[in-house]
């Protein structure tokens, strides 16, 4: 059985034939579309490494069936930079040494973008930590991550004025 779905991924419509209705968005992105920036950690919704924005909301792509999201808009880490220019969240992660091995970083950055767009964290480090608590970092770079999210949030709100 072959099933066809169309997704808009990083602004580009992509039609994909699924040969298995159980394929997740994570596996579709990594294995069919060569978008390997989205990482597979636990593959069971516990680490956040696979975070993407799905119709503007952050989700664990390892738990999302591709077939259930025909027509959706997806943003992955590959869609953030503007040409050679880093996205403000990427720049803030670099400025604050908010990573070590980097494995969790794409998921952290996508989750940060979702958090900032939700507008619920404000400038309170504790609320940022809580809002980012679904994204684990085995290297323990949490301090830099929190600082980076706070700085990116300030810059993005300044840029939006
Ligand atoms: Fe999806 Fe861990 S790989 S939450
Ligand atoms: Fe290594 Fe987070 S930087 S897991």
Secondary-structure map:
Layout: E1 3-9, E2 12-18, H1 25-32, E3 51-54, E4 57-60, E5 73-75, H2 88-95, H3 105-118, H4 125-131, H5 142-159
Parallel strand pairs: 1-5
Antiparallel strand pairs: 1-2, 3-4, 3-5
Helix pairs in contact: 2-5
Number of strands: 5
In terms of DSSP E residues, the strand content is 15-25%
**Number of structurally distinct domains:** 2
Number of helices: 5
Strand order of the largest sheet: 2-1-5-3-4
Question: Which fold name fills CATH's third level, the topology of the largest domain?
Answer: Ubiquitin-like (UB roll)
Bound molecules: FE2/S2 (inorganic) cluster
Distance between the termini: 51 Å
At CATH's second level, what is the architecture of the largest domain?
Answer: Roll
């Amino acid at each position: 059985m072959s099933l066809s779905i169309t997704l808009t991924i990083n602004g580009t419509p992509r039609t994909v034939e699924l040969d298995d209705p159980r394929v997740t968005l994570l596996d579709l992105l990594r294995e069919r579309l060569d978008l390997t920036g989205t990482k597979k950690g636990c593959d069971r919704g516990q680490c956040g490494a696979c975070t993407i924005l799905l119709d503007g909301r952050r989700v664990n792509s390892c738990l999302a069936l591709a077939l259930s999201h025909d027509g959706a808009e997806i943003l992955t880490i590959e869609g953030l930079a503007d040409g050679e220019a880093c996205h403000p969240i990427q720049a803030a992660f670099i400025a604050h040494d908010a990573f070590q091995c980097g494995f969790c970083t794409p998921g952290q950055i996508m989750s940060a973008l979702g958090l900032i767009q939700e507008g619920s964290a404000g400038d309170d480090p504790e609320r940022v930590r809580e809002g980012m608590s679904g994204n684990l970092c085995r290297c323990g770079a949490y301090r830099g991550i929190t600082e980076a999210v706070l700085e990116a949030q300030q810059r993005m709100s300044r840029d939006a004025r």
